Amino acid sequence: MALKAQKLANFIVEFTDPEQQEIQEELWMIHTDGSSTQKGGGAGVVIISPKEDVLKYGIQLKFPVTNNEVEYEAILMGLRIARALGAKNISLRSDSQLVVGQVREDFEAKETRMQKYLKLTNQLVSKFDRAEFVQIPQSQNVEADEVARSASADDQSRVNDWRLEEQNSPSIEEFQTFPVHTRSRWTSPILSYLKDGRLPPNPEEAKKIKKRAVKFTILNDELYKRGFSQPYLRCVEEEEAKYILEEVHEGICGDHMGAKSLVQKIMRAGYFWPTMQQDVMDFVKRCDRCYRFGIPRTIILDNGRQFDSHRFRSFCANLGIKNKYSSPGHSLANGQTEVTNQTLLKIIKTWLVGAKEAWPEKLPSVLWAYRTTTRMPIGKTPFNLTYGTEAVTLVEVGLTNLRMKFFDEQSNDNQLKLNLDCLDEARDRASQRMTKYQLKMAEYYNQRVKLKRFNIGGHVFRKVTTTTKDLTQGKLRPT
User: Fold this and answer.
1) Which of 9, 151, 247, 312 has its CA 20 to 30 A from that of 377?
2) The model's pTM
3) DSSP strand pairing (130-135 vs 234-235)
4) pLDDT digits over 38-73, tens only?
């Protein structure tokens, strides 16, 4: 029995993702408090990570607010920050008995504004795997209270101890949209649900509206993080969605990326429509340059005899796959450079199809496509890491979005200078992310490597390749 139990334990450990298990066990502690004054108020948030790192955040509320409302504003800000930090499991602690009781459904929210705050709070809570609310004495919430009071008093003496920002309107204000045409109506039931809680009588339709409302809120939160004082969203119609897909996928800044990356790039530019993911998948499938429904055009092999047989060649020929064979004789000198070159070469091939000699003319567009696409190891675009902001793509010029409509040259120049001042920190984070990414890849590889130790003087086989064979030995040379 002991042996069977040990085998079962080994099986569970082997097939359990350590990183996923660690994420599930991580618990973030969030302390919030609010301070109300005659002219406005302040909200304080103190977040303690699972590794006991402490983050303090203060918000100046530049509008009249009651004691209960400021407590809700602090909770909402704590939830937004925790979500931005990637927290999955949270324990939110506040000294407001009323607000915590309403969120836990111990008390009923009767006032209209309290109902709106509670509804918005529940929407944010639904984005976490696990969330608990605990009412604590004020004596156990000293740090959050200190941040809230300093924020409400506009105390700049301790601005280096935590981050301080301003909020000019309540979080429960109606979502603002930036429609392309006034005839756009698909957002109406979503806004009706977010504002008044109204849902259609059909259960299936109501479920669909709820899902879209969550996505709508997430997108607005992302735009809010990008610097907009209020959440905006550009909602597009079918004919304009087609133009966006064509321009972002294969335009002057397009690199024929896959469906998932294409969705991310469109959303980062500030565009959205309800069937976007399915439309993107269908569009990529119809692109002859980059998609053959999972069938490759060419397979490059290393002269392995199992792949150089007549049956395998016939199988590939029936599917239109070209077989090419290569004998690598040199290792990669610079892995990162080689990966970048391979990516650029792939984009060039998709651009040129039947005119390979025209690649110098297409190279500038290929480079722009590479520089304006988010790279997985760094989490940002190369253009962003160079200039501190995202490039304006041609699709934003052809179909004006919020950034282009409200462009102001003077404020834009000032913001660009500020971005450059803060660029070193962004580059450091990107470098740390790349290092972590490489370590994860190395760890994944090393877990599957079978350790073999060699002693001095031991005999080993040496593989003879085309570049290392001795031609003077003739047919009797070792293999």
Assistant:
1) 247
2) 0.38
3) unpaired
4) 777 889 999 998 888 888 888 888 888 888 999 999
